[in-house]
């Protein structure tokens, strides 16, 4: 028994339109073609799906059950046709992007929301990464990447979006700050845990200014790092946009006398010699 999607669509359209004539008009088919399709369906099923004894055809009880059971199939078929149209038009089925956990993402989220509204059938996958954005882009794990300090500018199209600082901070009630100012040295600081984030890609471990003799505490996400430092369990660098309020409330202290405050440039990047789809271009052009 081979039941075609065309037969199901014919039955569904007759039910929705209330007559075979109207169904034929909607499907741009002859009445005889609709009748032929339905007769073949009934022959394959072994039961009547339409009662044609009255002026208007109506579903039989088995026809109602059959049509109900086919709902998910017709819905998937409609989605399949829409996806085919998207493939033809250049709209991606899926778009992957990564964003550094150190970057402010407020503007990116607004753009993603607009993209989702404009292209509702595109699946957008978001990765929060640590020290791995450029590597993920290089290995085609993502289509777009937002990360700090681009190294290989020749291989990528890029837009510089912002600059932020990474101040060296510690909890204001941390024992280190109870030392005399002359004893608040780097040598004494590294006796306490340095809270660091592990690179998302373990084979691409890139740590900034981490000394071998330091006592380290690795975490996998920026919020854990922030919480551990805030609770006085260690020290480390955090993006200035994350800690402005904590510094004002004096919950964190900037170790200015030990700090050479690095400035980080944030770039939105994608591969230069690659054909990009419509959703990718939409996000790109929003910046």
TrEMBL record:
Database matches in InterPro entries: LysR_HTH_N, LysR_subst-bd, WH-like_DNA-bd_sf, WH_DNA-bd_sf
CDD domains referenced in this protein's UniProt entry, alphabetically: PBP2_LTTR_substrate
GO molecular function: DNA-binding transcription factor activity; transcription cis-regulatory region binding
Segments passing through the bilayer: none
Family (UniProt): Belongs to the LysR transcriptional regulatory family.
PANTHER family xrefs: HTH-TYPE TRANSCRIPTIONAL REGULATOR (PTHR30126), LYSR FAMILY TRANSCRIPTIONAL REGULATOR (PTHR30126:SF91)
Protein name: HTH lysR-type domain-containing protein
Organism (species): Halobacteriovorax marinus
């Amino acid at each position: 028994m081979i039941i075609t999607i065309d037969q199901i669509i014919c039955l569904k359209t007759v039910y929705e339109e209330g007559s075979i004539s109207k169904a034929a008009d909607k499907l741009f088919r002859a009445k005889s073609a609709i009748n032929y399709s339905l007769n073949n369906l009934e022959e394959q099923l072994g039961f009547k799906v339409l009662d044609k004894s009255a002026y208007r055809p109506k579903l039989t009880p088995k026809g109602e059950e059959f049509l109900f059971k086919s709902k998910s199939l017709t819905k998937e078929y409609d989605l399949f046709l829409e996806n085919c149209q998207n493939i033809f038009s250049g709209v991606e089925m899926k778009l992957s992007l990564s964003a550094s956990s150190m970057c402010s993402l407020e503007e990116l989220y607004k753009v993603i929301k607009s993209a989702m509204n404009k292209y509702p059938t595109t699946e957008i996958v978001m990765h929060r990464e640590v020290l791995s954005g450029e590597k993920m882009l290089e290995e085609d794990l993502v289509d777009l990447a937002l990360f700090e300090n681009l190294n290989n500018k020749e291989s990528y199209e890029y837009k510089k979006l912002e600059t932020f600082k990474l101040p060296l901070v510690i909890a204001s009630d941390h024992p280190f700050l109870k030392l005399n100012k002359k004893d608040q040295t780097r040598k004494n600081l590294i006796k306490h845990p340095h809270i660091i984030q592990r690179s998302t890609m373990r084979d691409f471990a890139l740590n900034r200014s981490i000394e071998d003799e330091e006592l380290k505490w690795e975490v996998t996400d920026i919020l854990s790092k922030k919480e551990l430092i805030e609770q006085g369990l260690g020290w480390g660098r955090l993006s200035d946009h994350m800690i402005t309020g904590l510094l004002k409330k004096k919950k964190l202290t900037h170790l200015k006398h030990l700090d050479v405050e690095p400035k980080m440039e944030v770039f939105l990047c994608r591969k230069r010699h690659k054909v990009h789809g419509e959703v990718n271009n939409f996000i790109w052009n929003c910046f």
